Amino acid sequence: MKSIAIIGAGLSGITAARILQGHGLTPTIFEKRAVTGGRMSSRHSQWGCVDMGAQYFTARHPRFIDELGNWIAQGIAAEWAVSPYHLSSSQRLHAQDVVQRYVGTPQMSAITNFLVANLDVRLEQSICGCHHRDEQWWLENIEGEAFGPFDGLLVTVPAPQAVPLISASPRLSMLARKVRMQPTWSVGLLFSEPLATEVNAAFVDNDCIEWMAQDSCKPGRLADTQRWVIHATSDWSSRHIDLEPGEITQLVTEQFFAMLDLPPVPADHSIARRWRFARGHLDGSSGFDESLCLGCAGDWSHGARVEGAWLAGQELAERMLGALRWDMNPKP
């Protein structure tokens, strides 16, 4: 039976693994963090759960629309009927757009938690080397432990992190080096007393903030406290990339209250998360080297959206099946 190594347990890697497993292959996912989901993961604490990464997603591609229908039927996703404001220093516009937005329920991580069931996932495994010899792949972690052999390798981490892992293919390495990824600081604020504002989500025209939302007003969330998530702009995040989380929280919170035109009040709890590789700028197709059975992609290769991450995983799996000349029909 053919075995495939997948580095990265975000939506792309999980999607690829499910497809390959459905066709009778044996995928193994290696993830450096202690949780799966990538930017679809949620932050859990005694004060509640918040989506610090992906805030919502849309569905445009027919295949993803079908998949979304399955998620809704399973109760792990729902439409978020929200009409975001557009805020700036000079105006507050409540735009009635027609965009259908969806979220995981009861948190964004519910989707990947459901999808990863029955998959072989090795958490807290930071892979630093990938070696191809005798038509097979061997992986090595930072402790020097080896894994393998595998018949194919898929790398679904952010492009800058993928470069050293796909060095066996100069073409794929060059593709990944072209991708410029930008960071985002994300701040979560919890208030036991709700803020006096009608805004529940907003796109913000501000040097510091680009998005804010009441995470606690999304479908399936507990409304015992008011929980906000604020995303800083990429430019601001780049300039402040090395600040401590406490400093970031203070700066972002000041701008948050200013944009809501509210007097500042202390949050009962706050957290900050730095997404160093939040956005990519390559919008094309997955990179794949058939001679090595090596693929590399992620949301950065398909438009930097949740839908893009899922489509990237689909394409990687299909190209791997083709490279292995494997039966393209799912196993019963």
Shape: globular
Which structural class best describes the helix and strand composition?
alpha/beta
Unreliable parts: none
Number of helices: 8
What's the total number of strands?
Answer: 20
Main pleated sheet: 7 strands, mixed
Q: How big is the Rg?
A: 21 Å
* Portion in strands: 25-35%
Average pLDDT, rounded to a whole number, is: 93
Order of helices and strands: EHEEEHEEEEHEEEEEHHEEEEHHEEEH
Strand order of the largest sheet: 7-6-15-16-17-14-18
Helix content estimate: 25-40%
Distance between the termini: 16 Å
Describe the model:
- By secondary structure, the protein is of the alpha/beta class.
- Helices cover 25% and strands 29% of the residues.
- It has eight helices and 20 strands.
- The strands form five sheets. It has a seven-stranded mixed beta sheet. It has a six-stranded mixed beta sheet with strand order 9-2-1-13-20-19, sandwiched between helices. A three-stranded antiparallel beta sheet has the order 10-11-12, with no helix packed on it.
- A hairpin with a 4-residue loop joins strand 6 (85-87) and strand 7 (92-94).
- Helix 1 runs parallel beside helix 8 (306-323).
- The two termini are 16 Å apart.
- The model has no long low-confidence stretch (mean pLDDT 93).
Quick rundown:
The protein contains 8 helices and 20 strands. With 332 residues, the protein is of the alpha/beta class.
